[in-house]
Design brief:
Distance between the termini: 70 Å
Order of helices and strands: HHHEHEEEEHHHEEHEEEE
CATH topology of the largest domain: Nuclear Transport Factor 2, Chain: A
Largest sheet: 6 strands, mixed
Radius of gyration: 20 Å
Shape: globular
Number of helices: 8
Length: 305
C-alpha cells in the first residue's frame, strides 16, 4: 500500500534525480485519521524527511515559488529561496534536527502536523521542542506554511503527563462530531463564557502551554486561559479549524494576516481532555532564539598545589 502510494506521487520537475523515494521516510504515529495515504500527505512527509536530513535543494523544491511562510521565529517570507535560506539558519541552531511523534489532521488541501523536535543547541546540548505546522498545498507543493511552537524543554507534571498519555492512546471518535464539539466549546471559552464551555470539556481536562504554564481541571484551565495577556485593541477570533476523529487544531488570530496562536485539542469520549497551546512567539514578544551566552559552563582557573 505504501509502495503504491509513493509510486503515485508526481515529483516536481527536475526533482526526481536528487530525491530517492525509498530511503529515510518520515516516521509516523499510526492512527485511523491517516489510514489512507494522500498525495498531499506524501508531499508533506517528503518535506519533513528533507528537513530531518538537511537536504536544502529538496526543501526549496517542495515549496511553491511564491510560498507564504510564517514562523514563530520570524520573519514572514514570500518565496521558496528565502524559505530554504531560513531553513539553513534554523538547522544550524537546531543541529541534528529530527521531527518525531508525528500526528496529522488532513482536511481538503490542508495538512496539519503536530510534532516534537529533537535537536542539539549550544555545546551540543540536546533539547526538545513541541511544534505545530500547517501546510496548505497546491499542485503537491507547499503554497502556505505556518509554524507555531512552544518554548524548548516544556516539562509536564505527573497529572498532566498522565492525562496526555491517556488522550494520545484513545481511539475512536468522529471528525464531524469532533468539529462540532470543538467549535462550540472552544469558541465559548475564547469569548469568556465558561459555563457554556464546561459542557464540551472533560472535568479533569488539562492545559499545556509552554509559555504561560500548566493547568489541571477545567476550572483551573479556564482561569489560566482567560488570564493570558491579550492586546489592548482587537478581539481574538478563530482563524481556522481542522478536525480529525479525536484531534483538532484551532488557529487563533487578532488580524487574519497575523497568525497568533494554535491550539491542538485532544478529545476522549466526546469531551475535550487536553489542550496544547502553541504560539507565534515573535508575534507575542517572546524571544524565540534561545541565547545560551549567560548559561555557559562555569570556567575556573586550576592553580597548581
Amino acid at each position: 500500500m505504501v509502495a503504491e502510494a509513493e509510486a503515485a506521487v508526481a515529483w516536481p520537475t527536475g526533482f526526481a534525480r536528487i530525491r530517492d523515494r525509498r530511503y529515510n521516510p518520515a516516521a509516523q504515529r499510526r492512527s485511523r485519521a491517516i489510514a489512507r495515504m494522500s498525495r498531499n500527505l506524501d508531499a508533506v512527509n517528503a518535506l519533513i524527511t528533507a528537513i530531518n536530513f538537511d537536504r536544502f535543494a529538496e526543501i526549496e523544491a517542495w515549496h511553491a515559488p511564491d510560498v507564504l511562510f510564517t514562523s514563530f521565529r520570524g520573519p514572514i517570507l514570500h518565496d521558496s529561496v528565502a524559505v530554504a535560506d531560513w531553513q539553513r539558519t534554523f538547522l544550524r541552531e537546531y543541529a541534528d534536527c529530527s521531527y518525531g511523534e508525528l500526528e496529522y489532521v488532513e482536511e481538503g488541501d490542508t495538512v496539519v502536523v503536530r510534532a516534537t523536535i529533537e535537536a542539539k543547541g549550544y555545546d551540543w546540548r540536546p533539547f526538545t521542542q513541541r511544534v505545530v505546522e500547517v501546510f496548505r498545498m497546491a499542485d503537491e507543493a507547499v503554497a502556505e506554511r505556518r509554524l507555531y511552537g512552544m518554548l524548548r524543554d516544556t516539562e509536564l507534571d505527573k497529572p498532566t503527563a498522565a492525562a496526555l498519555e491517556h488522550a494520545v492512546g484513545f481511539r475512536g471518535g468522529d471528525a464531524v462530531e469532533t468539529q462540532k464539539r470543538v467549535c462550540e466549546g472552544f469558541t465559548a471559552l475564547l469569548t469568556g463564557d465558561v459555563e457554556a464551555a464546561r459542557e464540551s470539556f472533560a472535568e479533569k481536562a488539562v492545559l499545556i502551554d509552554g509559555v504561560y504554564g500548566l493547568a489541571n481541571g477545567f476550572d483551573n484551565l479556564a482561569a489560566l486561559f482567560l488570564a493570558i495577556p491579550r492586546p489592548a485593541f482587537g478581539q481574538a477570533h478563530v482563524r481556522e479549524l481542522f478536525a480529525a476523529e479525536h484531534t483538532a487544531l484551532v488557529e487563533v488570530a487578532i488580524a487574519p494576516e497575523r497568525p497568533r496562536a494554535a491550539y491542538w485539542l485532544r478529545l476522549v469520549d466526546g469531551k475535550i481532555a487536553v489542550v496544547e497551546g502553541y504560539w507565534m512567539l515573535r508575534e507575542i514578544g517572546v524571544p524565540a532564539n534561545v541565547a545560551y551566552d549567560r548559561d555557559r559552563h562555569q570556567r575556573q582557573v586550576i592553580l597548581p598545589t
